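Ops channel
N.P.: pipeline sanity check, posting one input/output pair.
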């Protein structure tokens, strides 16, 4: 439990650093930082129960996307202000590094093992964000009042 708490704090610090690097305004930094920490906490929770990299990253990216959309509307800022720093902790840094190291060193086993993990994480994140965007689009499309024919003339 202590290790997971340290990971969440570290994810928050990393997200804060990227928020500052991407020049997120002062009023949005806390929400942006919380999104990254919350996304990593969701990742840890899902991975703990399923041991599935794709699913853990899918759900975490989905949640970060939802968070970014909620904060965008609440704080009147673009959702990318919260989304981009928020997904930073989910990026497959070490897996990508060792995939490239496997290529450079000619170590086929290292390349394949880490390459599979890199692809699972990357596609999980992308699929989570796309699924959430599509779901929110349809919710918005079908929950808004329909305009009657002939209105607005």
């Amino acid at each position: 439990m202590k290790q997971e708490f340290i990971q969440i704090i570290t994810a928050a610090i990393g997200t804060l650093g990227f928020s500052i690097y991407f020049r997120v305004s002062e009023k949005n930094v806390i929400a942006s930082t919380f999104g990254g920490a919350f996304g990593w906490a969701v990742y840890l929770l899902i991975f703990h129960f399923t041991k599935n990299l794709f699913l853990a990253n899918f759900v975490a990216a989905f949640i970060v996307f939802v968070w970014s959309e909620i904060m965008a509307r609440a704080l009147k800022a673009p959702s990318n202000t919260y989304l981009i720093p928020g997904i930073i902790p989910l990026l497959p840094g070490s897996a990508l590094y060792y995939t490239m190291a496997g290529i450079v060193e000619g170590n086929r086993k290292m390349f394949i093992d880490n390459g599979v993990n890199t692809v699972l994480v990357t596609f999980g994140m992308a699929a989570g964000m796309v699924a959430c965007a599509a779901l929110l689009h349809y919710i918005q499309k079908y929950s808004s009042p329909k305009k009657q024919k002939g209105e607005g003339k």
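N.P.: looks fine end to end. The mean pLDDT is 92.
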